[in-house]
Amino acid sequence: xxxxxxxxxxxxxxxxxxxxxxxxxxxxxxxxxxxxxxxxxxxxxxxxxxxxxxxxxxxxxxxxxxxxxxxxxxxxxxxxxxxxxxxxxxxxxxxxxxxxxxxxxxxxxxxxxxxxxxxxxxxxxxxxxxxxxxxxxxxxxxxxxxxxxxxxxxxxxxxxxxxxxxxxxxxxxxxxxxxxxxxxxxxxxxxxxxxxxxxxxxxxxxxxxxxxxxxxxxxxxxxxxxxxxxxxxxxxxxxxxxxxxxxxxxxxxxxxxxxxxxxxxxxxxxxxxxxxxxxxxxxxxxxxxxxxxxxxxxxxxxxxxxxxxxxxxxxxxxxxxxxxxxxxxxxxxxxxxxxxxxxxxxxxxxxxxxxxxxxxxxxxxxxxxxxxxxxxxxxxxxxxxxxxxxxxxxxxxxxxxxxxxxxxxxxx
Length: 412
Hints:
The chain is mainly beta. It has helices spanning 285-299, 321-333, 351-371, 396-402, and strands spanning 25-26, 35-38, 70-71, 79-97, 111-117, 126-132, 140-156, 167-168, 170-177, 189-193, 196-203, 206-211, 216-224, 227-233, 239-246, 252-259, 267-273, 302-304, 339-344, 379-385, 404-409. α1 (285-299) crosses α2 (321-333). The protein starts with 24 loop residues before the first strand and ends with a strand.
């Protein structure tokens, strides 16, 4: 029997900085939702259903790992990559790693050009940087004049003389969201993915679905901004987690997946919307409650996404109502069950502040349950702050996975 996890989103970030002071994000990253629109002929290609990115493939240029990079298939300059970002960013800094294979003299990329566009993948590009990379150069970064970008074109113009191919290990672009707020999103519909067709259904900040490969199921997921978090499970007994980001047009979900809950080791998952093709995922309140209890019994905890808060506050947003009611249903259906509610954050902001805010938000969830006639003695609210991440805090999707609530049975 397949196992399910009911997920919610603990939204808005646990930070004390304002939007204008937000941390810079490496937007050229698979684990931040970047999508490769165009890539040149390459030495290798990543298997879209593999657990990891293949070295010397286009994806290895933006996988965030220094030990893997891109390599061309032959020599025919220029080599062009076009990367789509999920939304507009104000780019302030570029980064490069050019530590190629030292046994192949002259293979490293030399002259490079970076261009930004806000108009489309094929038009409207403005040069942001043109220069020469150091031969076998380690991590280098440079501040540039801030420019908006939705698409980034990377052109490798030459190498250091090797006549068979060219290598480049990593390119980064660091920026901030252009818009602090976005319109409500809806991921409902049918999608083509690298694991077969998927059906997704959204209600408020919760979502569920299924996909073709091994009768896969997305257990009830949660939405924060453009980010969607699910637990996936298959008829083989395998299960894990995925965090995806929706692009501005609502036509593509791009992100990462893992086995279990360890999102520090991941493959990539791409969903492309099939226009005007609807689907349905049936699930009654009783069935949801049963899945929650089963997961709690089998795993010893529920990893919870989908409860959205006001920025830097413990005020629960109204769209979280349906998610919270399902916790109420779980407790009403199991009157002997007592629970711990743990609040977890990412590492943005001061550790002390994150600890305090996680405590307040866990208490806010408890207060909601008590107001809905759950005895206060059955619930303990605990703040865990940033101490127990399940993903890499260096990426936005990793941070989203770390911002969570966990529910576990309380002893006595």
